[in-house]
Design a protein that fits this description.
Layout lengths: L12 E7 L2 E6 L5 E2 L8 H9 L8 H15 L7 E5 L7 H6 L4 E5 L14 E7 L8 H9 L2 E10 L22 E2 L2 H11 L2 E5 L3 E5 L1
Parallel strand pairs: 4-5, 4-6, 6-7
Antiparallel strand pairs: 1-2, 2-3, 3-8, 7-10, 9-10
Length: 211
C-alpha cells in the first residue's frame, strides 16, 4: 500500500485495525493512527453531519465541557489577549467565554467561518476543540496554525487520545465517520519536538503547546 502518514509523511505505515471495510493505519514515527483518504467522506457529506450539531452557547453543560480547555488557557494568558478559535463550528461558544473575560477572539472554520486571511495574523492563544480528529491534512493545518502563534503563546487542543487503556475495537470515538485521525501523547510529544515547544497534558483529551 503506497500510503504515507498525513502528519509526518513517514512511509513506514503498519495496519492497525480493520472494521466494516475501513482500514486504520499506524505511523511508526509519530504514532498517529489514521484512515486513508479513500475512506474519507466528501465535503458535502461531512458538512451534513456538522449541520446536525446543536451546540448552544447558553448550555451550561456545554460550557463546562469547554472549560477543560478554557481554564488551562486562562492560566497561561495575560489581560486583553488576542486569540483564534480554529474549527469554531456552527455554534461558537468558547470564543464567547473568552470575550466575557476581556479577550478578543477570531474565528475560523472550514464550513462556517472560512476566512483564510486570519492566518496572516499573530495570536496570543489558539484553541481547537474536537477538531484535530477531523483533519485530512494535519501536517499542513497544524504547521499553518503554529505559524500564527506569538512567541510565548499557547496552542490548546482538545481531542480524545489513544492510550494503553483504550480498546480500539470498542472505542466510541472511532465510530464517527468524520473522525479520521487519532492522536496519542507520543504523537503530541512528536509535534512539540518538531516545533521546539513545551507540551502539557490535562487528562487524556486536552493538550497545551507553550511556545
Amino acid at each position: 500500500m503506497d500510503v504515507h502518514c498525513p502528519l509526518c509523511h513517514f512511509e513506514k505505515i503498519q495496519p492497525y485495525y480493520q472494521n466494516k471495510g475501513v482500514s486504520y493505519l499506524s505511523c511508526g514515527q509519530c504514532d498517529l493512527v489514521f484512515i486513508p483518504k479513500a475512506y474519507h467522506l466528501s465535503d458535502s457529506e461531512e458538512k451534513l453531519r456538522y449541520d446536525a450539531h446543536h451546540n448552544n452557547p447558553d448550555d451550561r453543560r456545554y460550557q463546562a465541557f469547554l472549560s477543560q480547555v478554557f481554564d488551562p488557557v486562562m492560566a497561561h494568558i495575560g489581560a486583553s489577549a488576542n486569540g483564534l478559535d480554529f474549527g469554531s463550528g456552527p455554534g461558537p461558544t468558547l470564543s464567547l467565554m473568552f470575550e466575557k473575560q476581556g479577550h478578543q477572539v477570531d474565528l475560523f472554520d472550514k464550513f462556517y467561518a472560512n476566512n483564510p486571511t486570519i492566518f496572516s495574523n499573530q495570536y496570543d492563544f489558539i484553541t481547537a476543540t474536537e477538531v484535530f480528529e477531523h483533519l485530512s491534512d494535519p501536517k499542513f493545518e497544524l504547521n499553518r496554525l503554529f505559524s500564527t502563534l506569538k512567541k510565548g503563546g499557547v496552542l490548546a487542543i482538545m481531542t480524545q487520545m489513544i492510550t494503553k487503556e483504550v480498546d480500539f475495537s470498542t472505542w466510541y470515538y472511532k465510530n464517527d465517520p468524520t473522525h479520521i485521525c487519532f492522536f496519542s501523547k507520543q504523537t503530541m510529544r512528536y509535534l512539540a519536538q518538531q516545533w521546539g515547544v513545551k507540551v502539557k497534558f490535562f487528562a487524556n483529551n486536552v493538550v497545551l503547546f507553550v511556545s
